């Protein structure tokens, strides 16, 4: 059997001895012995490189996202939005209440789905928080029993900063959200917010990528927005993936948009399901495709439903 010889794509130097070859970081198809050879070969390699790099990107972008994080108390998947874990009648082709329900109850769309405890760096879902408080345990951490109630905004921020100092991505995101919204007794400061979001995103925290994508989308910096939405989607953020679908649809890439919406809907993203419904009604999505996505949507939502979460949502809606 002939031995496979690996050599520089430009000068032909074989690997071994003093010659160490490094692969093209974009396509992984060819190797070079130095930067000079890589630059010399670029005019020849450029077309193939960009095509293969795009293929690799799509393979990563459209593969099955990681499973949702579970609440450490009830062990149910943590919902991205409260609407996804609200008990609803089963949706059918002739009657799909998904978006109608969201419109009627849009006040819970932006409500927090989990509560973070900086004392120990853990989060629980709102259903477990509701049950914990109902049992009389108000104002203490369910994990370490530290006092959480009655703290001033200054004390709360100090707690978050301590977690930021130990490189806690979730704390960075929460503190960044305070700065972006001007809450927690802090002045609104997008510079500080984005620095924290970038640090959290560098650790792969999907919500931080989502916030950065939203920020750049509002600013009209579409390339940066798409980059962060894609990073968030690959980390399992269905809201970001729904947004990518909208970006693709606006650019005329309907087939890619539908692929993103199917993945997002399968994770319980009602906006993605609504977009698929619109395409189905216009004849842009087949009956089988829509049925399959709707079934996956319902199954995902069913996995996130609990009596405690329903009770928490009723309380939140009753307080609005």
Overview of the molecule:
This protein is mainly α. The protein folds into two domains: 1-63, no CATH class; 82-318, Serine Threonine Protein Phosphatase 5, Tetratricopeptide repeat (Alpha Horseshoe). 56% of the residues lie in helices and 4% in strands. The protein has helices at 35-62, 98-104, 126-134, 153-165, 169-181, 190-202, 206-219, 222-234, 238-250, 254-266, 270-281, 287-304, 307-318, and strands at residues 22-23, 31-32, 114-117, 122-125. A two-stranded antiparallel ribbon has the order 1-2. The radius of gyration is 24 Å and the shape is globular. The model has no long low-confidence stretch (mean pLDDT 90).
What is the gist of this entry?
The chain has 13 helices and four strands. It is mainly α and 320 residues long.
Keywords:
320 residues, mainly alpha, 2 domains, 13 helices, 4% strand, Serine Threonine Protein Phosphatase 5, Tetratricopeptide repeat
> Could you give the distance between the termini?
75 Å
**Strand line-up in the sheet with most strands:** 1-2
Multimeric organization: single chain
Report Rg: 24 Å
Number of strands: 4
CATH architecture of the largest domain: Alpha Horseshoe
The fraction of residues in strands falls at: under 5%
Fold topology:
Elements: E1 22-23, E2 31-32, H1 35-62, H2 98-104, E3 114-117, E4 122-125, H3 126-134, H4 153-165, H5 169-181, H6 190-202, H7 206-219, H8 222-234, H9 238-250, H10 254-266, H11 270-281, H12 287-304, H13 307-318
Antiparallel strand pairs: 1-2, 3-4
Helix pairs in contact: 3-13, 4-5, 5-6, 6-7, 7-8, 8-9, 9-10, 10-11, 10-12, 11-12
């Amino acid at each position: 059997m002939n031995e496979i010889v690996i050599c520089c794509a430009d000068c032909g130097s074989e690997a071994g001895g003093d010659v160490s070859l490094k692969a093209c970081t974009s396509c992984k198809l060819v190797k070079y012995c130095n930067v000079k050879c890589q630059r010399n070969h670029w005019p020849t390699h450029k077309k193939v490189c960009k095509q293969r790099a795009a293929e690799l990107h799509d393979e990563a972008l459209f593969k099955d996202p990681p499973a949702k994080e579970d609440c450490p108390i009830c062990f149910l998947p943590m919902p991205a939005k409260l609407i996804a874990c609200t008990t609803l009648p089963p949706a059918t082709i002739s009657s799909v209440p998904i978006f109608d329900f969201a419109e009627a109850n849009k006040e819970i769309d932006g409500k927090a789905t989990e509560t973070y405890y900086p004392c120990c760096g853990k989060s629980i879902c709102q259903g477990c928080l509701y049950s914990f408080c109902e049992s009389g345990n108000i104002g203490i951490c369910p994990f370490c029993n530290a006092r959480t109630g009655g703290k001033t905004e200054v004390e709360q921020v100090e707690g978050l900063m301590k977690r930021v100092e130990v490189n806690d991505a979730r704390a960075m995101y929460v503190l960044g959200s305070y700065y972006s919204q001007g809450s927690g007794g802090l002045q609104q400061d997008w510079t500080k917010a984005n620095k924290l979001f970038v640090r959290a995103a560098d650790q792969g925290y999907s919500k931080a990528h989502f916030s950065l994508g939203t920020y750049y989308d509002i600013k009209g910096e579409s390339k940066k927005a798409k980059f962060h939405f894609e990073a968030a989607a690959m980390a399992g953020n269905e809201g970001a993936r729904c947004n990518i679908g909208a970006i693709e649809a606006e650019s005329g890439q309907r087939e890619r948009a539908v692929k993103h919406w199917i993945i997002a809907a399968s994770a319980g993203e009602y906006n993605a399901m609504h977009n698929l419904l619109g395409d189905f009604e216009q004849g842009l999505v087949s009956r089988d495709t829509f049925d399959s996505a709707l079934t996956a949507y319902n199954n995902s939502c069913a996995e996130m439903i609990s009596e405690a979460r329903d009770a928490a949502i009723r309380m939140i809606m009753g307080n609005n």
